[in-house]
Amino acid sequence: MVTIKDIAKRAGVSRGTVDRVLNNRPGVNPETEAKVRALIEEMGYRPNMAGQILAVKKRRLHLAFLIFHGPEFVFHLDILHAARDKAAELREFGVTVDFYLVRQLDTPYLERLFREVEDNQPDGIAALPLRTTAFMSFIQRMNAKGVPTVFFNLDEDFAPHLAYVGCDYVQSGRVAAGLVSLCTEGRGQVGIAAADGPNSPSFAGRMGGFSQELSANHPGLSMVDGGMPALFHNGDFTEVVDLVEQNPDMKAIYIVNMGDYGVCQEIHRAARGRNLAVITHDLAPAQQELLKNGLISATIVQQPDIQGSLPLQLLYEYLAFGTLPAKSKFFTDLHICISQNV
Amino acid sequence: MVTIKDIAKRAGVSRGTVDRVLNNRPGVNPETEAKVRALIEEMGYRPNMAGQILAVKKRRLHLAFLIFHGPEFVFHLDILHAARDKAAELREFGVTVDFYLVRQLDTPYLERLFREVEDNQPDGIAALPLRTTAFMSFIQRMNAKGVPTVFFNLDEDFAPHLAYVGCDYVQSGRVAAGLVSLCTEGRGQVGIAAADGPNSPSFAGRMGGFSQELSANHPGLSMVDGGMPALFHNGDFTEVVDLVEQNPDMKAIYIVNMGDYGVCQEIHRAARGRNLAVITHDLAPAQQELLKNGLISATIVQQPDIQGSLPLQLLYEYLAFGTLPAKSKFFTDLHICISQNV
DNA sequence: TTGTAAGCGTTATCAG
DNA sequence: CTGATAACGCTTACAA
């Protein structure tokens, strides 16, 4: 294993000089720099993580983690939990993480919250992007200050950021289509239901992938109502019940997003013993139960643990070692859960 | 963050003494030991990994990785590849890994190979267990010497070992049953095929889980020939073709293990356009192709990367930090792959 | 039985 | 522009 000391010895300089070259710090004679660089290349120097971690600790890095947190967002809780675990893990690297839970979307509230984040002067920010001007200008201000940001869960490109960690919603819709096809032998009608249609940023992506996959590879399948979702909210399932009852030859139903898990019960009541495949996304505790009971046929998960932990890890690596993320978009795996492999 | 130095200061002893207590080394006055232990507890001391790694490096640990490697074992290649990556990663921790590829199963060959491993005096061993006396006695000898072993891929309990990393074959058969049920609406007949029946240690587990799940939760499904597999080898697919042709009402076929990927082609030829779900295990490159072509409906993967890397990681943690594995069996996730999420 | 000191590889701070 | 030195937290000889 070749170390900085080895390089320094062979170059006839001190460790400090080699360090300056490695970290592109000013104040090195171009000639010695060239010599050192050549040796780094030639000897195949790779920095030793443990040594770096130990030394970087003294900088006491400070990160901020922002997530929207409403009662209907069970999924965000899993992300938050993973992020807290990661924060605990990073503590021994001298990193502290401040968590900010966004609980409303009105501008004064948001501006006050973002001002607070800014005042705490974080070295990096992991955030669930919001489509509000308050958020956008906040991110832009932080960018201007050179504070790196990583987005998770929603892939918004209104401001430059270090990376995105989250679901590929289009592909996720395609997987849903594949599952529907599997459950129906590729023939028949499929209904669409959603708790939140146009307001949900993920809805469009999933529906795009779903319909695209259907028309490209599953000619025997068609969507009821041309893909217009039956919406349900606050315990009102009439649209969904109608969908099931008025389409007796419907073989499957795709629930694009769920807020109220009671919908599955209603669907099966309305189906009256008829075979109806139900495909959903995510795996809240309630959904695990529904899978076990056969009220959900299969669900597609999007690794909330990675969405919570990886953004903090990427920020740490960037700030501590100057390592840019390997890619700009880290798409989570689209795992399929059925009753037997939850 | 509380360090050994902090403890030492508060206890009025030196770092060395605290270290001795932490690592249960002899030569500490019971009274000071008690005082130090109390402080460790009270101050919530957690060892710092980076510091440990750096210090432990000097020991230059040496591991052995043994895997059976025949042409028909494509899956083992994925494990091997992951293990080599892990070995490269462990190099900067001062760890070297020797790889031994078992290419035959005759006793003289095996004994010579194991003798060679033994002579190299590894500090720990990761091995794919073999059901031969030569292997068993080798493991027992190493155990006697206090060299820890971790098994992967096959869960054999003939000798004590630190941990097992691999598939839960019984559960994996249950997942296959769940997929068959999904593809058939839970009704009809399912055929069984295998490249290797009784000789394959995983076959029994998978078939057990499969039939158990069917009888427990899928009363509408039954196995053709009572579960007797149609065997195929070396391009001879007659049994499988017969199975498909003679059971026109068969809705699905479960390929418990595959050596020859040509079987899928034959199955679909024999099916003559009839809808037939095909469920397999693993995801060799050839299988990816078959998934894309629709010749495999779904396949269940068992994380070869984890099977290759985790055993080495567990051995390192045990040898370097004395950390016992969190569990004795690390079952890999049973991920379901369809055409859309490979 | 206990303390001391060197070293693992890197970074940061001070002198020069 | 460069070198020396002191951390970061831990382990391990060796000395007392």
TrEMBL record, chains A, B:
InterPro entries: HTH_LacI, Lambda_DNA-bd_dom_sf, Peripla_BP_I, SBP_2_dom. Pfam families: LacI (PF00356), Peripla_BP_4 (PF13407). Keywords: DNA-binding, Transcription, Transcription regulation. Residues 2-56 form the HTH lacI-type domain. The keyword Cell division does not apply. CDD domains: HTH_LacI. GO terms for molecular function: DNA binding. This is LacI family DNA-binding transcriptional regulator.
